[in-house]
Amino acid sequence: MPLEDKRWVEIGVEAEREAVDDLLGLLSRHCPGGAAMEDLRESPQWPRPERVLVKGYLPEGDDETLRKIEIALLLLSRTAAISEPQVRVIKAQDWTEAWKRFFPALPIGERLVVVPTWVEYEVQPDQIPLYLDPGMAFGTGLHATTRLCLIALERLLAPGMTVLDVGTGSGILAIAAALLGAEHVDAMDSDPVAAEVAQENAALNKVAERVSVSHATLPGRPLTRAPLYEGAPHDLLLINILAEIIIDLAPSLPDFIKAGGLCVASGILSEKAQSVQDALQAEGLSIVEQLEEDGWVALVARRPG
User: Model pTM?
Assistant: First the structure.
């Protein structure tokens, strides 16, 4: 299905301010589309100034995760002042426009700062700005999975490395790699619209000559119609998708990592981290680090030299 035709489930919950952190943490953990707080105190249409609206976004069709969220919200409501969830389906374009209200400039790690194209931001001398318009592609830096990848990338990338970004989305990781000194980045996405968005963002950040974006995927996902990537091995492979997809693609990952090279795998719920670790190790990759945030995990693995 083209990305512009996809739809999201928006889960909206009213909460008193002291319950916001717990609610944001819960929704951030389970919603790949992110979670955010909408403070409407200044709106005359908002009847409860002491309460805020917290929203999470889940791809349509993930009924199992939606049920988990509803159960978790019911349990949270016993100890926190939150409303029953209001659930509605929205188009990808509406989801993207909604994010523009929630997406601030976001410093990540030691040097990177993600700056939306519609926000004015004064870049500090020690910062590396990454300008981004997500368009209809996932990947803003707001979600823990992307932040973990960016933090790992900043630590691991040495100037002159080559990088492969699998499931690039908005292109945020590929662009960050180029800004941090990668010699060349190959980025791919199984959705052609996302590939177009990533290429546009690479041009926006003046790294298009070092970032090649293609509509492609790796072997292991038979349901996709995207062509198979046929490039050479890289020093560093980034894959920020979902645990199940990483497990499916695990047999093909070593073929695209140089001997002694690294892989950063993210998008993994903490309870699924062991399954992903087992899948990577079964293909000869050794786990060298595990990063965690808000119930999400990123694994750093190395291919033996």
Answer: 0.73
